[in-house]
Design brief:
The protein folds into three domains: 2-147, no CATH class; 153-279, no CATH class; 284-425, Immunoglobulin-like (Sandwich). It is 25% helix and 35% strand. The protein is α+β, with helices and mostly antiparallel strands and 427 residues long. It is elongated. The longest helix has 23 residues, at 128-150. The chain has helices spanning 2-17, 41-55, 58-61, 128-150, 153-173, 187-195, 206-212, 219-225, 422-425; strands at residues 30-32, 77-80, 83-87, 93-101, 106-113, 175-180, 197-202, 231-236, 240-241, 244-250, 260-261, 268-279, 284-288, 292-302, 315-326, 332-341, 344-347, 354-356, 361-365, 381-384, 394-405, 410-421.
C-alpha cells in the first residue's frame, strides 16, 4: 500500500512540474559565430533571420519531415524577423522565442510566455511541448548549418566582385543607336534623342543578397543564380523635339524599360523610330508694328498616357507664355487679345486690362499674372511613316491685339497670321 502511494505522489509532482508557469522549456542555447570581418553588424542579424525562416519553412518542408510543424498547427506558427511566435486561433501571440546576434558575435535566445506573469517563465499551454520541439530543432539546425553557410562567404564575395565587374564592363560598352526609319530627322535631332535615352544598371547589395540566398548549400548555386540579379535598363523617355513627337520601336526584341540580366543586353542596341508625329503649332511666334511687339511661346506638354508596343504619350499643345513690349514714349493699354488657328478664332481671357508704361514690357505666364490661356483642343497634327508623304497640308496661326495709347485717344489693332507647313517644323 505504501509503495503504491509513493508512486502516486511522484506522478502528481511530475504533473505539477509540467503545468502552468512551470511548463516546458527549450534546451539552453548560445552559439558563438565566426562572421567574415567585412559583414556589418546589421547584416549578421539578417543572415541569421533568413536562415531561421528557411529552417522553419513549413509549407515547403512538411511532407519531407524536416520540421516539427504539422498541417493543423501551420496557421498558428508565425515567423517574424528573428522571432518564432506561437499564435492562437485569433492570431494573438501566446509565446515566442527570439534569436539575437550580440556585438561579440554570439547568438542568444530570449523567450516569453504571454500568459505567464513571472519573469522567467517557461512555455505552457496546449501546444507548448510541440512548440518547444520547433525551437529545439531551430537551435540544432542553426548550430549545424550556420558555420557551413558562412564558410561560403569568402568564395561568394569573390564571385560577386567578379560578376559585378562583368556587369559594369557590359554597361559601359553598350552603344545605343537611334535609327530613323521615317528618314526625316536631322543628325542634330537624332543626337538630342540619343541623349534622352535612359540607361541604368542595378546590382544586388552584396551581403543582402547573400543573406537572402544563404539556404543555397553550394557555391555552384550562387554561380547559377547570381548573374540574373545584375540588371541593365534601357528606356527611351517621352521625346518631343521641337514640334516632333517620336515613336520608338525596338527591332532587337529587347524589352525596353524593363530590368534585364546584363548578359541579355547586346553591345549594340538599335532603337528604331517607325513613326513621327508633326504638330502644326509654332513654338515661337512674334508680331509687331511701330508701337508694340508680342512674342508668344507655345509648348506641347505630356498628358502621361502610355500605350503598349509604342512608347507613346498623348500630348496637349498649349500657350505657355507671351510677352508684350511697349516701344513708345506713351502709356499703352492692352484691351483684347485674339488668337487664330486654322478656321478657329479664340479670345485669350484677361482678368483685367494690361497697362504698359513707356518703353516697358509685360510677361504673361500661363496660370499666373492675369491670364488663363486655353489649350488648343483641335491642334492639327500629321503622322509620318516615310519621308515621301506629302507636305502640302498647312495651317494658319497668328494673333490680333486691340490696344489704345493713353492721352492720344487712339485705338489701334496689331494683326499677323501666317501659314505653316510641315517643312517649317522639319528644318
Amino acid at each position: 500500500m505504501l509503495k503504491k502511494m509513493s508512486i502516486g505522489v511522484v506522478f502528481t509532482v511530475l504533473l505539477i512540474s509540467f503545468s502552468g508557469c512551470g511548463g516546458v522549456q527549450p534546451k539552453p542555447y548560445t552559439q558563438q559565430v565566426n562572421f567574415d570581418s567585412t559583414i556589418p553588424q546589421s547584416k549578421k542579424q539578417q543572415i541569421v533571420n533568413n536562415l531561421i525562416h528557411n529552417i522553419n519553412n513549413c509549407w515547403d518542408d512538411i511532407r519531407a519531415g524536416k520540421t516539427y510543424c504539422s498541417k493543423d498547427e501551420l496557421d498558428f506558427l508565425l515567423l517574424h524577423g528573428n522571432c518564432i511566435y506561437k499564435t492562437s486561433r485569433n492570431y494573438s501571440r501566446t509565446y515566442n522565442s527570439c534569436f539575437l546576434v550580440t556585438k561579440n558575435d554570439t547568438i542568444i535566445r530570449e523567450g516569453k510566455d504571454y500568459f505567464c506573469k513571472n519573469k522567467d517563465c517557461s512555455y505552457s499551454g496546449k501546444y507548448a511541448q510541440k512548440y518547444v520541439k520547433v525551437i529545439d530543432n531551430t537551435q540544432n539546425e542553426l548550430q549545424k548549418q550556420l558555420p557551413k553557410k558562412l564558410k561560403l562567404y569568402p568564395q561568394y564575395s569573390k564571385l560577386y566582385d567578379k560578376e559585378f565587374q562583368k556587369a559594369q564592363n557590359k554597361f559601359n560598352s553598350i552603344n545605343i543607336n537611334i535609327i530613323d526609319n521615317v528618314g526625316l530627322l536631322s543628325k542634330k535631332t537624332i543626337d538630342s534623342l540619343k541623349e534622352k535615352i535612359n540607361k541604368s544598371s542595378e546590382d544586388p547589395e552584396k551581403v543582402d543578397f547573400f543573406a537572402q540566398k544563404i539556404f543555397y548549400d553550394s557555391i555552384e548555386n550562387f554561380k547559377e543564380y547570381m548573374p540574373k540579379y545584375f540588371t541593365i535598363n534601357i528606356c527611351p523617355k517621352w521625346n518631343i523635339i521641337g514640334n516632333l513627337e517620336v515613336y520608338y520601336l525596338n527591332t532587337n526584341k529587347l524589352k525596353l524599360c524593363q530590368d534585364q540580366p546584363y548578359f541579355n543586353i547586346p553591345e549594340n542596341v538599335n532603337i528604331h523610330i517607325p513613326k513621327i508625329r508633326v504638330y502644326y503649332l509654332p513654338l515661337k511666334f512674334s508680331a509687331q508694328d511701330s508701337n508694340i511687339r508680342i512674342e508668344v511661346n507655345n509648348s506641347i506638354k505630356d498628358k502621361g498616357t502610355k500605350t503598349i508596343g509604342y512608347f507613346k504619350y498623348e500630348t496637349i499643345p498649349t500657350i505657355r507664355a507671351f510677352t508684350i513690349y511697349n516701344n513708345t514714349n506713351n502709356f499703352i493699354t492692352i484691351r483684347k487679345i485674339s488668337g487664330y488657328y486654322g478656321d478657329e478664332i479664340f479670345n485669350l481671357p484677361l482678368y483685367q486690362t494690361i497697362s504698359l508704361p513707356p518703353k516697358s514690357y509685360k510677361n504673361i505666364v500661363q496660370g499666373l499674372s492675369n491670364a488663363n490661356f486655353p489649350d488648343f483642343g483641335s491642334i492639327a497634327s500629321l503622322d509620318y511613316t516615310n519621308k515621301n508623304k506629302s507636305y502640302n497640308f498647312s495651317v494658319s496661326y497668328g494673333f490680333a491685339i486691340s490696344y489704345s495709347m493713353d492721352g492720344l485717344n487712339i485705338r489701334k489693332n496689331l494683326y499677323r497670321v501666317k501659314k505653316f507647313t510641315a517643312e517649317d517644323f522639319l528644318k
